[in-house]
Design brief:
- The structure is a single chain.
- 33% of the residues lie in helices and 27% in strands.
- It is built from eleven helices and 19 strands.
- It has helices at 18-21, 47-58, 95-123, 141-156, 194-207, 254-257, 275-281, 322-333, 379-394, 400-407, 416-439; strands at residues 4-6, 26-28, 34-43, 63-66, 82-83, 131-138, 163-166, 182-191, 211-213, 218-222, 227-231, 234-243, 261-270, 287-289, 296-300, 306-313, 342-352, 359-363, 366-373.
- The strands form three sheets. Strands 5, 6, 7, 8, 13, 14, 15, 16 and 17 form a nine-stranded mixed β-sheet that branches.
- The longest helix has 29 residues, at 95-123.
- It starts with a strand and ends with a helix.
Length: 440
């Protein structure tokens, strides 16, 4: 054992989030010291790295995982906790590259990704407040028309979970707000406590023989037939390397770093609400998300707090006061919360790709280096899918899914590291202005 478990304890190194305050276990792993030998070295202790490690260990591979800070420190432990079907946005755009069958396969993998999470939680008995039920919220009639098309497509794909289209007069059965003109209920999606899921998966990986090291930031990578991954106090020698850092890749690999844009997303959590008020806000305890460019997403926690998130920022600068920034957005939806206290406020970076499809593949000039990143808001499920596909490819199994993802090209954002965020921020401002005009 290279970890010790204490429950519960304050997770001081994580963001000051509701999740950190309510983590149901604390697993501490030592920093890497000295040399480790492995079949596969994984960089990144979020969902991508943890699930790749689990899948590889099951296949008999010796795995070492390095995390720069703590397990689940990045988006995996800070996100809105929404587990929603699908990978990518508008996957039909890739038909010229992967064909109609490839597009259909992407859609089916977007459904399978949620099932991977379901199975992971069940197999390892991970206590992460997994709750089923989700609703897409329509901001305008055109959104509702799109939902009807989505529902028919899902039925055509053989989706086995309940779907129901909601008309305007039915919306109060799902959300206590007059802001929406319809919705699409999906009982095959839902919500969970993401940090507790990550911690549970770390324990699962360790039980399978994976060696995990925290506070082990990678300082240098020597590429070659044998990869050498250096930290401040040690190194890992491995035949294969997996980079699963997503928005926190920084300058570790400039080729991959240029293809993913870190974008800020923010969440506030209210004080625990009286049960009657909580059920007024979300009568069926569903996770919900609207359709705007600067989307709102929200849900109830297990102790009846409203967790309200959104406001995707491409500027690279966080709001000085996240609570003051997010609370007015919450009150536009739920003015009845004007006197409710905000107990937690936090933010973090998600990884955005130019075409909004997760980037899963291997470096063309380094065939023993694999990567997964740029989940563009679908990270809870897509990371779990990525772990399975990466393990299949690394172990030489036939992996149609990996091949499909690897075929899709991904452009490098213009402007370099310092200019690409401001340039995209200007572009997103244009989209928001266009959206505002279209809503009139």
């Amino acid at each position: 054992m290279n970890a010790r478990v204490r429950m519960p304890v304050h997770t001081e190194h994580h963001a000051p989030s509701y999740y950190a305050a309510t983590a149901n276990r604390r697993i501490e792993y030592p920093p890497l010291a000295g040399e480790e030998l492995a079949d596969v070295c994984i960089v990144g202790g979020g969902f991508s790295g943890l699930n790749t490690a689990i899948e590889l260990a099951r296949r008999g591979r010796k795995v070492v995982l390095l995390e720069a800070r703590q397990i689940g420190w990045g988006a995996s432990g800070r996100n809105g906790g929404q587990l929603i079907r699908g990978v990518g946005h508008g996957v039909e755009q890739f038909e010229s590259v992967i064909g109609a069958e490839g597009v259909r396969a992407l859609k089916l993998m977007g459904l399978e990704a949620v099932e991977i999470v379901r199975r992971r939680v069940e197999e390892f008995a991970i206590d992460c407040d997994l709750t089923w039920g989700y609703c897409d919220l329509a901001n305008k009639p055109g959104d509702l028309e799109g939902f009807a098309e989505d529902m028919e497509e899902l039925k055509g794909l053989g989706y086995r979970h309940e779907l129901r289209l909601l008309q305007p007069h039915e919306m109060r059965s799902v959300v206590g707000s007059d802001r929406y003109v319809g919705g699409l209920i999906d009982m095959g999606s839902g919500h969970l406590h993401p940090l507790n899921l990550a911690l549970g998966e770390a324990a699962a990986a360790e039980s399978l023989g994976v060696k995990l090291f925290e506070h082990s930031a990678v300082t240098r990578i020597d590429y070659g037939a044998e990869v050498k991954v250096h930290t401040a106090r040690g190194q890992v020698r491995a035949r294969t390397l997996v980079l699963g850092c997503n928005a926190y890749l920084n300058d570790l690999n400039p080729t991959l770093g240029g293809k993913v844009l870190p974008a800020g997303s923010y969440v506030i959590a209210t004080e625990p609400l009286p049960r009657e008020l909580a059920r007024e806000l979300l009568p069926r305890n569903m996770a919900v998300c609207d359709q705007r460019v600067a989307l709102d997403y929200y849900r109830l926690s297990a102790d009846n707090r409203l967790l309200f998130g959104g406001a995707c920022h491409y500027s690279g600068r966080d709001p000085a006061d996240i609570g003051a920034y997010m609370q007015p957005k919450m009150l536009k939806v739920f003015p009845q919360l004007k006197d409710v206290r905000i107990d937690f406020q936090w933010g973090g970076m998600i990884g955005i790709g130019a075409n909004r499809l997760p980037q899963i593949g291997r470096l063309p000039n380094q065939p023993n280096v694999y990567f997964a990143q740029a989940y563009s808001g679908h990270g809870v499920n897509a990371t779990h899918l990525a772990g399975q596909l990466l393990a299949e490819a690394i172990c030489g199994e036939q992996s149609t899914g990996f091949d499909i993802f690897a075929k899709v090209p991904h452009i490098t954002f213009p402007g370099g590291r310092h200019l690409r965020s401001p340039l995209l921020a200007l572009g997103m401002l244009w989209y928001r202005m266009k959206e505002a005009v279209g809503a009139v």
